[in-house]
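Chapter review: from sequence to fold.
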Amino acid sequence: MTLRDANRGGCAQSCRWQYHIYNDGQEIDEQLFTMGSKDLMAGAYMYDLMKAGVTSLKIEGRMKTEYYVASVVSAYRRLIDEIYENQDKLSDERLAYHLKEILRGENRQTWAGFYTGKEDLSTLIYHATSNQDVNHDFLGVVKEYNVDKNTMIIETRNKFELNERLEIMEPGLDNREFVVEKIIDTLNGESLDCANRPMYLVEINVPFVVKNGDLMRRKR
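The token string follows.
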């Protein structure tokens, strides 16, 4: 319909468009219809997949943000490692923790695909637009760290405010959390109550060493 090849990175997201429904030329429903399925999330079945001998997973990343890729890949890595270490299914509490971490990167509703052995209306997204659940947890990227001042320069993505509890994501380390005690506009040195301009540089406190390229997100 768009002369764009989704398999080559040119998806026009036609599954998220709104369609009129007709039967024999007669519109049968006044409500516009979206036919997008929920995104696949197989975390709850990871033990079964590993026990079945699966040794490789494909996690979508094309046309996704660096935050999505970092959070989802890291969450699956930690889930797999804990299952492997235990050599058994995880407790409900531990599994719920890992599933929550996987879902931190989502923008759309998810389901377990055909692993459940069923397909019904709960697998589809039914609301005015399937892009309504926008994720605002990704707050910025570390551009510079000042060891003398214990501060970092952040290139912002979404709004955050003073006294919020945030966390830093760094490859190979557990996420580290802190509370924002000051936000400084790097252009004029003014103190801010919040950072609400995307792709803007602000200086904030951080009580530990960070590296350029580390990601900052909301603590939940």
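Two observations follow directly from the output. Residues 1-134 form one domain. The chain has three helices and 13 strands.
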